[in-house]
Amino acid sequence: MAHYEIIAPVTDAQVRGWRIRDTVTLNGTLYGIRDGTQIHMFDRGRKTRFDLRGHAVIHTAPNVRKVAKSAQHPAGYVPLCVGTTTSARMERFTRPLMQQCGVRIIIGKGGLGEGSAAAFKDLGGVYLAIVGGAAALETTWVEAIEDVDLDDLNPESLWKLRVKGFGPLLVAMDSHGGSLYTEVNQAARGRRAAALASLGVKTAN
Amino acid sequence: MTKDKPVKVDLKQVEEACKELYIRALKVLPPDIKQGFARLDAAETDPLAKKVLGTMIRNISVAEETDNLTCQDTGVPIYNVTIGRNVEVDGVDLEAAITRGCARATGEHPLRSSVVHPITRVNDHTSCGIRIPAIHFAFSDRPEELTIQMIPKGSGSENNSWLKMAVPADGVDAIKTFVIDCVLEAGGKTCPPTIVGVGIGGSADLCVYLSKIAAIRPLGARCEDPEGAKLEQQLSVAVNQLGVGPQGLGGDSTAFAVHVELAATHITMNPVAVNMQCHAARRASATFTPKGLTYGF
Ligand code: SF4
Question: What is the complex's ipTM, to 2 decimals?
Answer without folding.
Answer: 0.94
